[in-house]
Amino acid sequence: MSTPRQQIAKQQRALDILNRLQRLYPDASCSLTHSTPLQLLVATILSAQCTDERVNQVTPALFERFPTAEAFAAADRQELESLIKSTGFYRNKAKNIRAACQKIVNEFEGKVPAQMQALLSLPGVARKTANVVLAHGFGINAGVTVDTHVKRLSKRLGLTDHEEPGKIERDLMALLPQPDWENWSIRLIYHGRAICMARTPRCDRCQLAELCPSAGKIGSTAAKGQSKGRRS
Q: Does the entry feature the keyword Nuclease, yes or no (predicted)?
């Protein structure tokens, strides 16, 4: 457990990292194409174990066919599955989307709720999805979205020792200002895709390296790149 002095130092480092991320990715935004909170909810459910790029290829036809929560709630299961099949785990996703929309229609007057607990009551919705919908659908920073990139990079940056997303989220919420909770997630996701990949992070190109206790220690490609950089 960190001492108060260590916690203060970690918090300052987290703020320094956040400032650099904001300079590196000033225009970072949600990668899922959407026009309404409902579309964002559905797209986020589809994004589980699937790339945002693939989801964005699927959703235009999906949203044209099912433009409202009522339409999704009454959707033919097989038709819905066929439209989202390429996103993977399509049977379970179709089941959750339809059930979530049925609850939205029956209990929330056909509108996606803007409260964390209400969102968590929807089938297929955990904190990650709820945080995304609240932040990008309603402008509410209720928590820190922890996906695979945020989990990996937050651990590499020494800001959490946990594996469970809920515990990682609590650690990050204690380190970052609430208005920046979603800024952190979005920009860290961009950085994870561009620089800090899972197996071969590009530490030699990383502008967070001097703030990262893992820099140069993960992946042979990154280590070799750093060595070449020191010799040049």
A: yes
Q: What letter represents residue 57's amino acid?
A: Q
Identify the sign of the CA torsion 101, 99, 130, 147: negative
CA 165 to chain centroid: 11
* Binding-site positions for [4Fe-4S] cluster: 196, 203, 206, 212
Q: What is the distance between the alpha carbons of residues 43 and 58, in angstroms, rounded to a whole number?
A: 9
- CA–CA separation, 150 vs 230, rounded Å? 29
pLDDT band at 115 (very low <50, low <70, confident <90, very high): very high
> Model's pTM, two decimal places?
0.89
As a whole number, the mean pLDDT across the chain is 93
Residue numbers in the known binding site are 196, 203, 206, 212
Per-residue pLDDT tens digits for 43-54: 999 999 999 999
**Structure confidence at residue 43 (pLDDT):** 98
Q: Report the CATH superfamily, name and number, of domain 37-138.
A: Hypothetical protein; domain 2 (1.10.340.30)
Question: Which of 1.10.1670.10, 3.40.190.10, 1.10.357.10, 3.40.630.30 would CATH assign to domain 4-27+145-226?
Answer: 1.10.1670.10
Instruction: Give the residue numbers marked as catalytic.
Output: 128, 147
